[in-house]
Amino acid sequence: xxxxxxxxxxxxxxxxxxxxxxxxxxxxxxxxxxxxxxxxxxxxxxxxxxxxxxxxxxxxxxxxxxxxxxxxxxxxxxxxxxxxxxxxxxxxxxxxxxxxxxxxxxxxxxxxxxxxxxxxxxxxxxxxxxxxxxxxxxxxxxxxxxxxxxxxxxxxxxxxxxxxxxxxxxxxxxxxxxxxxxxxxxxxxxxxxxxxxxxxxxxxxxxxxxxxxxxxxxxxxxxxxxxxxxxxxxxxxxxxxxxxxxxxxxxxxxxxxxxxxxxxxxxxxxxxxxxxxxxxxxxxxxxxxxxxxxxxxxxxxxxxxxxxxxxxxxxxxxxxxxxxxxxxxxxxxxxxxxxxxxxxxxxxxxxxxxxxxxxxxxxxxxxxxxxxxxxxxxxxxxxxxxxxxxxxxxxxxxxxxxxxxxxxxxxxxxxxxxxxxxxxxxxxxxxxxxxxxxxxxxxxxxxxxxxxxxxxxxxxxxxxxxxxxxxxxxxxxxxxxxxxxxxxxxxxxxxxxxxxxxxxxxxxxxxxxx
Length: 514
Description:
Blueprint: H1 15-20, E1 24-28, E2 34-37, H2 39-45, H3 49-52, H4 63-79, E3 83-90, E4 96-107, E5 113-122, H5 124-139, E6 143-148, E7 153-156, H6 158-163, H7 174-180, H8 183-196, E8 204-212, E9 219-230, E10 236-245, H9 247-262, H10 268-291, H11 299-314, H12 317-324, H13 329-342, E11 352-355, H14 356-366, H15 368-374, E12 377-380, E13 385-388, H16 390-406, E14 415-424, E15 440-448, H17 480-490, E16 494-499, E17 505-512
Parallel strand pairs: 12-14
Antiparallel strand pairs: 1-2, 1-5, 3-4, 4-5, 6-7, 6-10, 8-9, 9-10, 11-13, 14-15, 15-17, 16-17
C-alpha cells in the first residue's frame, strides 16, 4: 500500500509529508503524465523536475527494463487498476539498483479518476538473494512441489514434471502423482504422505521411491523430502518439498553389490581393492546423498525469516520462495564451506599488513549471539600485526573460535583463551614444519575447556569432511579445520593441535614474523 493518498484536488496538501518519507513517492494525472515526485526521487536519481516529470522518469530506468515498465504502467493507467513491477533504477552516480514500483488509482468524491499515486522501494539486496537461491536450487538439479491439501491444488516445477515423465505444460494433481509412482511403491508412498498430513505429526517427509514415466515409460529412482505445515487448529494447510533423481546412485550401488558378490577367495587382492573402492564410493554417496540433502529440512526456517521481513516486497515471489525453501538451509552452509575451501589459493596474492586485534574483534562481533547464549568467557591477549590476507585470516579465527564454542562440555561455562608468544626457528617443535623459512614465528594458541578428543585422531582432524563426533550431536560439514590448515599454509606457517577427552583442545598457529 502506498504511504499516502493525495487530496482529490491535487497533491500539494501532502508534499511536506511525502518529502519526509524514506521512500520515493510519485503522483500522476489521469493521462498518465507524472505531476509530482518527492525529494527522495531527485536525491537518488540526480534528475531535475524538468527532466523527470511527464514521462521523463522512464529515462532513469535501465534501458533493458524501461519499455516493460512503461507498458505495465500505461496499461494499468488505462484500466485504472493497481500495479506492481520491478525494474533497475539509475542512481545519481550511474549505478543501478533493483526497485519495486507499486501504484494504485486515486479518485475524487464523485468517483472521477484523477490518476495514480505510488511509491518506489529499494529491493536490491532481496533481488540478489532471490537470484542466488534460484541458482543454488537449479545447480542441485532438484525438482520442487507445493501441495494444498485443502483445495487439492498441486504445483510442480518443470524439473519435477520431467522426473515423472511429463512435459512442462502438463496439468498435475495428486492422482497424477500416484499414477506416476511404480505400482510396487505406490501404496507405501501414499501411506507416508497421508501420515505427515495428519494433525499431531511432525510433518517431515523423507522417502525414496520409483517412478515410471507417464509419457516416456522410463524407470527412475527418486529421493523426496518435504515438510507439512499446520494452522492454529492443527489442520494441515500446506505440504512442500523437493525431489532428486538418484537413479545413477542406485544403479551404481546395485552394480557394485553384484561385483562384490561375484568375487572369490582366488581374487582376494582384487576384492580388497574393490572393497576400498566401495568405501570411497560410500563416502562420496554419504556426502552427496546426506550432507548435500540433509540441509533441505532447514530451509523452512530460512524461508520464514525472509517471508517475515520481506513478504510485502516479494509479492508473488513468496510462492516461489515457499517452493524453494526446502533447497537451501544447511545445503547452503555446505556449499558455502566447499566454496570457501576451493577458493583458497595456494598463496596470498596481495598480502597486506593486518592488525589481528582488530580482525579478531570483528570475528567476536559475528559470534556475539553464540557467545551470549552459551555464556562463554573469551580471554584475548594482545595480538601481533602480520602480513597476510584479511579474508583468509578471518576464516581462520572464525573456524577456530566457532569450533571451541560448538564442542563445549554440557553444564560447563565455555572458557576460550587466545595467547601469543614468539618462537625462534630453531626452537620450533619437531612436528611443526612451516612452509616458509623465517627467523621467527608468532605462536598464536587458541585453547578451550571443551569436550576434547583422543590424541590418536589428531593426524586426521585437518582432513576435509573428517568428523570426530556424531552428526546427531554436533552440526557441521567437516570442512572448517581443513580451511584453517589451508589458510595457515598459504601464509607460510603451520598449525598443530593438542587435546584429550574432557580436558579441552588447544590449537597452535605458527605465522612467520617476516
